[in-house]
Amino acid sequence: MKLLYPLTLLVTFLHEMSHAFAALLSGGQVLSLQVNPDGGGLCTTQGGNPLLVTAAGYLGSVVFGNLLLRIGLRWAKLAPVVLMCLALFMVTVSFVWYGGTFSFLFTLAFGLLLALLAWKLPRVGRGFLVVAGIYSVLYVIRDFNVGPSSDLMAFSKMALLPAGIWMYLWLIFAVMITLANVYFLFRRKRS
């Protein structure tokens, strides 16, 4: 759907950003971060823990999606701060980890849009975080791919189990994290 296209690109950004964070946290470096017009992406890294970097795309997207959902629904006062931090990060990434013209323009423009939401329309920004969080989680669950160029296939070659098994393990992780988040978001406090 064309209406959801910007959210698809944002989810791709979160996916690639998860690879980038894993590379940095495990001692590697990020050479570029690319978001493609078709909704795909590529984070080019060097060094770091290859298992962690490869797994981080899907799993990090689920964690980020659930965090965005929680912030939008429960921590409303943090919403403008989170939007502004994400905006600044996207603008910075567009320059520092340049991944091509489309990627540069998308991350720069979307970052500026998020800054505008944080600054001028915090209520809309809060709603955006909820929608983006839900979309991120649902998109990740829908997007598990075991094709030859997928993260799952690359991970399975390193982790010595078939991609189909890892797909279900990652899917179970994604569903459990999301269900736990939803449970704690909507459970009633006891008096």
What key attributes describe this structure?
single chain, 7 helices, 191 residues, mainly alpha
Write structural notes for this entry:
With 191 residues, this protein is mainly alpha-helical. It has one domain. Helix content is 72%, strand content 7%. The chain contains seven helices and two strands; from the N terminus they run αββαααααα. Strands 1-2 form a two-stranded antiparallel sheet. Strand 1 and strand 2 form a beta hairpin. Helix 1 crosses helix 5, helix 2 runs parallel beside helix 7 and helix 4 crosses helix 5. The chain is globular.
Secondary structure layout:
Layout (H helix, E strand, L loop, with lengths): L4 H21 L3 E7 L5 E6 L3 H25 L4 H18 L4 H20 L1 H21 L8 H9 L3 H24 L5
Oligomer: single chain
Q: Could you spell the SSE succession in H and E letters? A: HEEHHHHHH
Main sheet properties: 2 strands, antiparallel
Principal-axes geometry comes out as globular
Q: Beta-strand percentage? A: 5-15%
Number of helices: 7
Uncertain parts = none
Give Rg in angstroms. 17 Å
Estimate the mean pLDDT confidence.
90
Secondary-structure-derived class = mainly alpha
Number of domains: 1
Distance between the termini: 45 Å
Report strand order across the widest sheet: 1-2
* Record field, number of beta strands: 2
Question: Helix coverage percent of residues?
Answer: over 70%
What would a concise description of this structure say?
The chain is mainly alpha-helical and 191 residues long.
